[in-house]
Amino acid sequence: MPTTPLFRRIDVAPAYQKVADAIEREIINGRIKPGEPIGTEQQLVAQFGVNRSTVREGIRVLEEGGLIRRDSSRRLQACLPRYNKLATRLSRALILHEVTFRELFETSMTLEVASVEGAVERATEENIAELAGNLERSAAVVGNPAALAELDAEFHVLMAKASQNRVLQLAREPAAQLFFPTTEMIVGGVPEGGARLVEAHHHLLDAIKRRDKEAGVLWTRRHLQDWRRGFEKIASLDRSVEHTYMEHAYAARQ
Amino acid sequence: MPTTPLFRRIDVAPAYQKVADAIEREIINGRIKPGEPIGTEQQLVAQFGVNRSTVREGIRVLEEGGLIRRDSSRRLQACLPRYNKLATRLSRALILHEVTFRELFETSMTLEVASVEGAVERATEENIAELAGNLERSAAVVGNPAALAELDAEFHVLMAKASQNRVLQLAREPAAQLFFPTTEMIVGGVPEGGARLVEAHHHLLDAIKRRDKEAGVLWTRRHLQDWRRGFEKIASLDRSVEHTYMEHAYAARQ
DNA sequence: TCTTATCAGTTTGTCCGACAAAGCTAGATT
DNA sequence: AATCTAGCTTTGTCGGACAAACTGATAAGA
Which of A43, A94, A164, B20 is the residue whose CA sits 20 to 30 A from B8? Predict the structure, then answer.
C-alpha cells in the first residue's frame, strides 16, 4: 500500500468529454452569453485540435444537456436551458423509477399550495390577466375534456409563474407533467367534472385578486382533492405511474 | 394555399436522433430493462444500417440523458437515470437563469418542510438509523465547517429518503444542490453555527422518532431561518446565485 | 494443480478524407 | 432596386483506419 502519492491522478476523460466540458465552462462562467454563437464545427476542430467527429460527439452532449442549440440555420449558439425540456427528462426518470400516483399527488399538493401562496403574495396585473384569459377560455370548453385538461395544465403553470419564483416553477414541472395528463380521463369520467374544475379555478383567481392566501390554499386543496377522488374511481393511487399510463392513455404520448 | 393535405409531414430528423429515439423507446417501454446490455457499437451499426459515427452521436445523446451508461468494461447498458445527475443539470439551469437566493430559500423551505412531514409519518427503523449515524458523525466534526456542511447536506437527503416519496426526493434536489454549498460559509462565519446546526438536526431526528410532526416542522423552520440569518450576514438574498457564488466559493467547484 | 504470462480477437476512442444537401453570400441580371 | 444564380460554407453522413484497453483462452511456470 503506497503511503505517499508521488503522482497525481491522471486525467483520462475522453476527448469529446473534454470538448464538452470546455465549452460548458465558458457558458457557465458567462464568457459566452446565451444567444451568442459558439462557432462552426470547423472552428472548434481548429481550436481544440481534435477531429470533427470528436467535436460532434461533444456537441451532442451539450445539446442534450440544453446548454447549446442550433439556430434556424443550424449554427451553434449558447442558450438558456429550457425548464420544459429538462422537466421532460425528469418526468421520464420518474416513470422509470416506477413512482406511484400517491407520491406524485402528495408532492404536487405541496408544490401547488406553495405556488398559490406565492401567487397571492406577488401576482402582477399581467399575471392576473393571463389567468383570467385562461379561465375565460376554460369556461368556453367546459364540455370538452381534452381541451379543458390542456387549459388546466396551463392555468397551473401560469399560477407558478405568478408566484415569481423560478425555482418553484422548475420544481413543480416534472411532477405536473405526469400529473396533468390524467386530468382528461378524470374530467371526462366524472359528471360535472369540468364545471367543478372551472369553479375551482375561478375561486383561485378570485383569491389571488383579493390577496386572500387562506382562500387560495383552501381551493387548491379542494381542487386537488377533486382530482384525487376522480382518479381513485379509475385507478389506484398506489400503482406506478408507468403501469397506469400503460393501461390508459399513455400510448397517446406521441 | 393548398386546402387538402395530400401528404403527411415528412420526418426529417437527423439519423443520430432517430437512433437515440429508437433506443430510448425500447428502454422507456421496458423492452430493455435497466442493467441489460444494449449491444456493441458494431451491432448497433448493423441493426440501424448507419455509420458508426452516427451511432456514436446517438449514444452520446442517451448517455447525457442518463438513459444508458457504460459499465466497467465500457459496454453499453440501459440504466435508471440517477436523480443526482439530472438534478445537477437542473441546478446549472437555475444558475444560468440567475435565480436569487430568496427564490431558493422559499422553495427549499417548502420542500424541506414537506420532507420532514413525510419522514415523521413514514420513516423506517433503517431510515432513523441512517439519520442517527449521520448525526453522530456530525457531532464529531462540529468545529470543521467543510465536513459539517457535507454531512448537513447528507442529513437532508436522508430525511427526504425517509419520507418515502421519490418525487419529493427528486423535486428538492436541484434547489438543495445550490442551497447547501453555502452552508460551509455560513457555519464558518457564525459563532456557534456548527453547534446550532447539530442541535437542530438532533431535534429533527428526535421529532421523527417520536412521530411528532409539529416539532419536526418547527425545527425545520428554525434550522432554515438560522441558515437565512447567517446568509444575510455575508450576502444579499436578492442577488443571483450565480453572482454570489462567483464572489465566494464558486471557483472551488472543481 | 494453481498461478502467471502470453497472445489473438473485440471494442472503444480517435482520426482522416470524402460527399450530398441545405444555407449563405455576393456578383450578375432584369 | 429587386431578383436570380452560381459558388462557397456548413452540417449530416459515410467508409475506412489504427492505437489502446479489455476479453478470453491457451501456454508456461511454481
Answer: B20
Structural contact between residues A96 and B80, judged by C-beta atoms closer than 8 angstroms: yes
Q: Is B39 on the interface with A (CB under 8 A)?
A: no
- Nearest residue, CB atoms, A166 vs list B30, B64, B97: B97
pTM reported for the whole predicted model: 0.87
Burial of B31 (0-12, 13-18, 19+ CB in 10 A): exposed
- Contact of A147 with A182, CB cutoff 8 Å: no
- Asked whether residue B161 carries a pLDDT value surpassing 90, the answer given is yes
Q: Is the CB of A206 under 7 A from strand D?
A: no
**Residue B208 contacts by C-beta under 8 Å, 6 or more apart in sequence?**
B116, B119, B120, B123, B127, B128, B131, B159, B162, B216
Q: Does B50 touch chain A (CB under 8 A)?
A: no
pLDDT above 70 for A1? no
Distance B74 CA to D27 C1' (A): 29
- Residue keyed to cell 439551469: B93
- C-alpha span between A243 and B2 (Å, rounded): 42
Q: Does B57 touch chain A (CB under 8 A)?
A: yes
